[in-house]
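Notes from the pairing session

We agreed to fold both candidates in a single pass and log them together. This is the raw record for the first candidate, unedited. Please don't reformat it; downstream parsing expects exactly this layout.

Candidate A
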Amino acid sequence: MKQKVILPYQFDAEGLEPPSYAHQGDAGFDLRAAGELVIEPGARKLTPTGLRLAIPQGFVGLVWDRSGLAAKHGVHCLAGVIDSGYRGEVKVVLQNLGSEPFTVERGMRIAQLLVQPVAQAELVRVENLEESARGEGGFGSTGLQGKIFYRWGIRHKSSGGCNYPPGLLLFNSGINRRLCHNL
């Protein structure tokens, strides 16, 4: 179901293209850097966009990575929630997870913004929480042990001592490493 949302904005980045969707049907529209900066490996910087929004009540703006920057340069977005009541400039926290300094050029597409409906929960304090099948398991607790996997159309079951499916190949910098020998 398509839901059209009117999104009023101000744009204070003279000479730059205003925000827009790159293609019909895209989930997010591009956010561009309003200035130039260099992010050293391991560092993060707050990057201005010159954009101010009036996100409607009942919606949220979510800042997401641009897949090309993440895949090619290791540049990742952090802290990407824009509440409906916020009227300041949208700034993007960029972190360089790569091994080389990364230069953000003025006008570069640095992130994308998704506008989505959001529910506001009514918080109710209770003495006990309802039990669930999962319980307190988290942070990888389900693992891959004993699960059924398919690789090249062949059914495999992971075995004891191997946290990955049998014969799983890990692709890392063009080198194939077999993680489990019992294929």
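Candidate B (folded immediately after A)
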Amino acid sequence: MMVHLTVLVSSSSILLMPKSPDLIKAMDDAIRGDLQSFSDSFFWLALMSSLIVVIGVAFEGPELLHELWPKMFPVFAKRWVKKIGFIGWLLVVLGVGGEVIFGLLEYKAQGLLQTFNDILLTDAQRQSSDANERASMNEKEAAQLRKDAEDEALERVTLESEFVKEEPRITLLEWHKSQIAKRLLPLAGQKFLVGNCFRIDDTEAIRAASSLMGTLEHEAKWINAWGPSMGGGENCSGSGMFVSVPPNATEATRNNAKVLFSLLQNILKTGVFLDDTGPWKLYELPFVKGRLDQETILIIVFEHPYPLSPPHISNDAK
């Protein structure tokens, strides 16, 4: 029996082996059940020993009654009473001995069961600690990944901003021509005008305006209200690119202007402005005045926005 116990308790070392959780739980339940059954068996043996003691005491009763009250129980004076009393005495001795032995064994079995439960509790605490540690490590790794992603995004934006500052806008507009067409083609038929304002020695604005006009007209299928050409003027003060509509523009025209503005802002990053209520009065520029109706979007390309300056139109154009 003790060999069986040793095997059961040593089986708990299997918890340290890489087994599946369901298999480990099944083995734990089986070991705990065996230990509990083992303890229960000693309990019932001790209980049976107590019953034997009771029977032994009952067998000694007639002899004791005769000794105490011989006149009242003369029938117990016979020889068989002493034999029964002796048998009772033997039963008492055996019963008491059984109670002691099986009680000690039950105590030992309960100790083994408690030790096994302590092992499981310690292992569960260790697993919980490991899980918390792994969760903490995962959280730290996730935080580091987020930080790396944010740093990468910041670096990319910085590089893009530096690129925008140093490269002609036509480069970005040509690179994103397919993106512009894909986004604006559903709005095909929208009327537009492209104009430019620049210093006499600056051709960057003309090239950017020409590229955008070609993409809107040929790729996005918008209608150039100036035909195959664009308007412009020299020595207009201002920087950046403006998307504008007249004060009386229709709701559809305003919405399409906002779509175009958002797209250009995403591509050029800086120096793109929306004038959807006409506070800057771009529609009154000399080369635009009288040509803009309520269904036409006006795009004015000024000088390159680097270094950036606040939106400004010369007093002559206001």
